[in-house]
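Entry for the shared binder. Reason: the reviewer on the internal report wants the predicted structure included alongside the sequence.
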Amino acid sequence: MAKLPRFSLSYNNKNRKWELKREGSGEVVRRFKTKAAAIKGGVLERAVKKLGSVRIRKRDGKIQEERTYPRSMDPRGRG
């Protein structure tokens, strides 16, 4: 199985925005005003171009959840 691109959604205190970054390079893919705006209605899925794993973090930096796009590529869902 091919390795999926990894992303992280975290809060940036400096600019007061939520940032979706590509892990490894630190490249900011997209910025959001609120966390809710980032995770509603397929916005994250479109931002990672429907292929990747996104770690959604709390404001304190701890991982809240992880989402895989497409869902069928989630290794935890395979038996």
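Summary line for the report: Helices lie at 35-39, 43-47.
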